């Protein structure tokens, strides 16, 4: 006995619905960053305050040669999602660097915990601003920017290693983190 025929969906209507859904998702991606608005005004300031509380300057000034310098070319983007991607990558590297077990023992553990928690939450929020499929990084421009960020943070790690993770070397990293938070603030403001 033959099974009763089940109605077959019309592919034309299914394709149209899928196309409408994809279009809605694609146009909603830039809108996904609107949830940052309440927090983005205070994130850099809060982070700078926590960074200062976490890692006070050493009593004597530190002078190191060949210290890494933030590449200002990272601020030369032309798309809000590129700004979000760059800000996210900077925060990811900052989180990795500042969560290192080799940070100085005199740094305030609670302020460090609060800063890392703050970074983690904001990284999560920025991830919502980016397309899931990575199409933003096709082509040379954004990828080179992300490689520059990775290179910059690799130089920071090399700097720490060269100076045996000394308190002075970590103080320079703290100053670089301060610059990073200022640059992230610039990127976030441009996303608006």
- How does the helix and strand content classify structurally? mainly alpha
**What's the β-strand tally?**
0
The whole-number mean of residue pLDDT values reads: 74
Q: What are the low-pLDDT stretches, counting only 5+ consecutive residues below 50?
A: 11-32
Over the alpha carbons, how many angstroms does the gyration radius reach? 22 Å
Dominant shape: globular
Strand content: under 5%
User: Number of helix segments?
Assistant: 7
What is the terminal separation in angstroms? 64 Å
Largest pleated sheet = none
Helix content: 55-70%
Order of helices and strands: HHHHHHH
Question: Could you walk me through the main structural features you see in this protein, from its secondary elements to its overall organization?
Answer:
- With 192 residues, this protein is mostly helical.
- Helix content is 62%, strand content 0%.
- The protein has helices at 11-28, 37-40, 43-54, 80-98, 109-127, 141-162, 167-191.
- The radius of gyration is 22 Å and the shape is globular.
- The model is unreliable at 11-32 (pLDDT under 50).
What's the quick description here?
The chain has 192 residues and is an all-alpha fold. Helices cover 62% and strands 0% of the residues.
């Amino acid at each position: 006995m033959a099974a009763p025929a089940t109605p077959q969906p019309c592919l034309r209507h299914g394709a149209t619905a899928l196309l409408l859904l994809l279009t809605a998702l694609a146009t909603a991606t830039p809108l996904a960053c609107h949830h940052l608005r309440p927090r983005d005004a205070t994130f850099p300031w809060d982070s700078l305050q926590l960074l200062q509380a976490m890692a006070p300057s050493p009593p004597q000034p530190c002078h190191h040669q060949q210290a890494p310098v933030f590449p200002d070319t990272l601020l030369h983007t032309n798309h809000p999602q590129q700004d979000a991607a760059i800000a996210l990558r900077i925060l990811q590297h900052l989180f990795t660097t500042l969560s290192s077990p080799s940070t100085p023992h005199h740094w305030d553990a609670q302020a460090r915990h609060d800063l890392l928690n703050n970074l983690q939450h904001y990284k999560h929020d920025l991830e919502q601003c980016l397309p899931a499929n990575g199409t933003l990084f096709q082509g040379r421009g954004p990828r080179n920017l992300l490689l520059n960020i990775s290179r910059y943070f690799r130089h920071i790690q090399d700097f720490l290693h060269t100076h045996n993770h000394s308190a002075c070397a970590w103080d320079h990293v703290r100053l670089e983190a301060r610059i990073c938070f200022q640059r992230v603030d610039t990127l976030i403001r441009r996303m608006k």
